[in-house]
Amino acid sequence: MHTNDMAPASSVHIPSPLVILLAILLLLSTTLADYSTNTSRDALLCLKFHLHGASTAMATWNHTTAPDFCTWHGVSCTRSRPRQPPLVVALDMEAEGLAGEIPPCISNLTSLVRIHLPNNSLSGNIPPELGRISGLRYLNLSFNALSGTIPLSIGTLHNLSSLDLGNNRLSGEIPSRLGSSPALESVSLPNNLLGGEIPQSLANSSSSLTTLLLAQNQLQGFIPDFGKLSRLEMLDLSYNNLVGTVPRSIFNSSALYFLGLANNNLGGTLPSDMGNTLPNIEILMMSDNHFEGDIPASLQNASSMTYIHLGNNSLTGVIPSFSSMPNLKYVMLYSNQLEAGDWTFFSSLANCTQLENLNVDTNNLRGALPEDSITNLPKSLTALTLSSNNISGIIPLEIGNMSNLSMLYLDRNLFMGPIPDTLGQLRNLVVLSLSQNKFTGEIPPSLGSLIQLEELYLQENQLSGSLPESLSSCKNLLALNISCNTIGGSISGHMLARLNSLSWLLDLSHNQLAMSIPQEMGNLINLGSLNISHNNLTGRIPSTLGECVRLESLRLEGNLLQGRIPQSLSGLKGIQQLDFSHNNLSGTIPEFLETFTSLQYLNMSFNNLEGPVPTGGVFANKSGTFVQGNPRLCANVAVEELPMCFASASTKKQKVVIPMMIALSALVALAFILGMFSFWLKRRYTSSERIGHSHMELKRITYGDVNKATNTFSPANLVGSGQFGIVYKGWFDVEDGTVAVKVFKLNQHGALHSFIAECKALQHIRHRNLVKVITACSTYDPVGNEFRALVFEYMSNGSLEDRLHNHQCGGLSLGAVICISVDIACALEYLHNQCIPPVVHCDLKPSNILFDNDDSARICDFGLAKLIHGCSSGGQSGTTSIVGPRGSIGYIPPEYGMGSEISTEGDIYSYGIVLLEMLTRKRPTNEEFSDGLTLPKYVEESLSRTQDILQPSLASETGDQCADHIPNLQECNTFALKDICALRLLKLGLLCSAESPKDRPAMHDVYGEVTEVKEAFFSMDNGSNDLT
To answer: Membrane-crossing residues (predicted)?
Structure first.
């Protein structure tokens, strides 16, 4: 036997320590790999648990059926070394329907380099735990519904190169620590609710920054110096509340190709060498500011320019040449004080072979278009706007060579001569506006070749002849306005039969049309407004008009119509304005008019109607019903100026026959007077029922755009609701930002007319104290119903109504009342005296006065507004007859209830009531104002006791010592000075709200008065005053 065979069993070989250590490390490595894998998987499953509404997108996120999470949809992995566990480095899930809040557990994916989750419905706050992902280089959470502030921890991500949080609902200030990220190349935060100033640290951040987008927020203060950002290519600060001048360093940023500063409160002049210092600039957006001085001639050296938008500033001088800009597509210079000089800028556009839109509306171009001016325009042009420039002379025949034109606006000028036949060659034309000029001759039949035409405006010229039959070929026509000319002949039934596309407006008023109204008028079943008043039309009202069931306004006054009012008109259930006055109609007043719940204005005066006047419906509104001049009418109940229907025979004879004799005599005299002055009258009257273009070209939006912007009209976005519309808060793209979307309730009678009226007024106006319209939407919803909406700037600080009568508010200070008074007066002075034609708002009240981000007051809601002007081109302004009791009870001037014409004095009355309401905090409709006592009378009776009538918040600021007289202010203390200010405002309110329009001051005087009060009030701090 061998000795080794006899060795004990316990003597087993023991591994060396090195082998043991290797085994432990192998076990530990396997354990750590499993731990890392489990951590990543658990973090992804946590993310799936918190994000709902993405069952399809995250269907593969299942560790049972797909244990390898690197194969899950939207997940990207990498391995640092072979056989190492996978690391999640990217999440890419754009537009996957994700909803819910981003959970903090996302930070457990510590190897993430890229997070890309835009265009979803993520909500809640951005988790600050994202700051733990130290290797994160790219973060995009744009186009969601995230709220709260931007976490400070994001500023600690030193590897972050791209940050996009735009189009959310983020608030608070931009973290200053963002500027400490050395790798940062792009920061995009547009269309949020961010406030405060732009951090200086951001301007001093890494020189690698190329993109900074902060548009559509609530940023304020000055623009910081961006001089250190030498690589900056895109800078957009538009639609904020920035003030001051633009730092020179921005104009020296030679790498810039996009510069957006529009819609701020910036001022100063443009550097004369900006075209040299910005050699790569392609898009320049500086509209809606206060820039002044010339457009630099050096701008033509920016040869890459494609878009110039300098509209609505105070720029002066001659428009420079654009000859060195071959890529130019858009030139928007509207609403300045620019001049054409020798029209060199027009000829220079010949080199801009890609030009699509030229808008120089509302400037001082003046003079006549040179003979070759149109010839030099590039054929690529699709929109040409030269409105409101006092351009004279004729339209060159070469206009017909602009074959791509779809919109041509030459209105509100001094053009004369015939309308050129060659316009008929513009087969792509959609809108043609030649109104308010001095065109003569006939309407060219060639216009019938414009088969794409939707809007034709020829009103307020000196056109004659008859309506060309060829217009019947314009089968897409929505609006036709030829009012205030001398068009004769008859209305062609054949033409009407083929123009059944008309849905907005047909206005042939104030012409010399004769014969009867054709039965084919009933074919216009989609028409909203028909005005054929003040012509020489005879015969009966056609019964087929009852088939125009969408009519909201029907005006037939001032003709020679006779016979009974047809029973078929009972089908006009949505009618709001109905005027049959000054005709020869007979018979009784139809009872169905009582049932029209939407009817607000009915004028049947000066006809031969007889029998009882109904008492229900619109007839109960004395200020909205007019039946005078019908001597055979009577009343079943006591009504002033009408005899009782059950009176005795002798009494009846006295009350009917005698007035008839008087009326007949008056009619004979009236006929003679009308014969003498009919032409003059026709040129005085006007009817401006039209919808035109705005000062800037509005981009088209669809129902889908509105639906998305309002989150499918979510109740959470509901701002308010009125008679004709519902207002939502919405979020559009970078260009539009946070907006107010007014969706018209077209099932409500009158809503369509309100939409048209608001469009009509807003086309002419642009002012800092008016809520700005961004665009309009006129289309159909997915089920085929009509859809109309207007998109406005969003006013985030409520209304004057809220501040006056919300009991949670403590009332207005005197300084606030003064500032609001100045803002409103400034807006009305612009509407009345600077707009051509003047605009009357017709519904000024506290709920229509909103406050923007810097608490400036702005007037809104032009649904009842009216343009006023004379029919004769270039003549003196006049007023059109009021078409209903425009306004709100308590704020309507008393003369409107008597059937007086609309006038600027009506707005002044409403302004006076609003001013008194601010000072007293009493509504004009309070129950205490009855039995003849009104708010103005209440103030007038108590004027010597100002403390009794001022609202408490104002009374505490003032004293009684200056109520009876205005002393030497050097001897008055601060209380006395404030009392004088309040007293002057009270007296101004009384002057404005005088019962007679003749006793009211003009708006420019009102504006001067409140401005003087404001200057004196705010001079108290420096010891000066000038109220005496």
So the answer is: 656-681
Question: Is pLDDT of 884 > 60?
Answer: no
Could you give the residue range(s) of every CATH 3.30.200.20 domain in the chain?
A: 694-794
- Looking at CATH, the fold of the domain delimited by 801-1028 is given as Transferase(Phosphotransferase); domain 1 (1.10.510)
CATH of domain 18-236: 3.80.10.10
Tokens of 727: 């207002």
Residue given tokens 């849905």 in the structure block: 503
Going by C-alpha positions, the residue among 205, 227, 211 that lies closest to residue 260 is 211
Parallel, antiparallel or unpaired: strands 725-731 and 718-721: antiparallel
Give Cβ neighbours of residue 126 (< 8 Å, ≥ 6 apart). Answer: 102, 141, 146, 148, 150, 151, 154, 165, 170
Q: How far apart are the first and last CA of the chain?
A: 137
E strand spans, 395-542: 407-409, 414-418, 431-433, 438-442, 455-457, 462-464, 479-481, 505-507, 529-531
* Mean of pLDDT values over 265-285: 96
Half-sphere exposure of residue 971, counting CA atoms within 13 Å on the CB side?
5
**Per-residue pLDDT tens digits for 405-461:** 999 999 999 999 999 999 999 999 999 999 999 999 999 999 999 999 999 999 999
Residue 207 has pLDDT above 80, yes or no: no
3-state secondary structure of 794: coil
- Least Cα distance to 316 among 373, 365, 251, 243 occurs for 365
CA 173-174-175 angle, 5° bins: 105
For the question of residue 931 being annotated catalytic, the response is no
Single-letter amino acid code for the residue at 175? P
- Residue 44 sits at the vertex; the CA angle it makes with 42 and 45, to the nearest 5 degrees, is 65
- Please choose, from the candidates 695, 833, 837, 819, the residue with its C-alpha nearest in 3D space to the C-alpha of residue 769: 819
Q: Is 742 among the annotated ligand-binding positions?
A: yes
What does the block give as tokens for 695?
């000062």
Q: Where in the chain is the domain with CATH 3.80.10.10?
A: 18-236, 503-689
CB-based contacts of 797: which residues, under 8 Å, 6+ apart? 850, 851, 852, 853, 855
Q: Please, which residues have CB within 8 angstroms of residue 891's CB and are 6 or more apart in sequence?
A: 843, 844, 845, 909, 910, 913, 914, 924
Residue of 164, 361, 579, 843 marked catalytic: 843
3 state DSSP class of 242: strand
**Per CATH, domain 694-794 is 3.30.110.10:** no
Tokens of residue 155, six digits? 């500023």
Cis peptide before 837 (omega within 30 of 0): yes
In tens, the pLDDT along 971-1015 reads: 445 556 778 888 899 999 999 999 999 999 999 999 999 999 998
With beta carbons less than 8 A apart as the criterion, state whether 87 and 111 touch.
Answer: yes
Domain 503-689 has CATH 3.40.50.1980: no
Any idea what DSSP says for residue 493? Answer: H
Cα angle value 18/19/25 (rounded, 5°): 90
Residues belonging to the chain = 1028
DSSP-based helix, strand, coil % in the chain, nearest 5: 30, 20, 50
Sign of the CA dihedral 802, 902, 385, 321? Answer: negative
Per-residue pLDDT reduced to its tens digit, 75-107:
999 976 677 789 999 999 999 999 999 999 999
Closest CA to 824 of 937, 968, 997, 985: 985
Residue 778's DSSP bridge partners are: 788
Q: Among the listed ranges 79-83, 164-168, 257-261, 348-352, which one has the minimum average pLDDT value?
A: 79-83
Residue spans in the chain of domains classed CATH 1.10.510.10 = 801-1028
Tell which residue, 334, 256, 320, 243, has the closest CA to residue 289: 243
Nearest to 789 by CA among 748, 750, 746: 746
Give dist(CA 532, CA 610) in Å, integer: 25
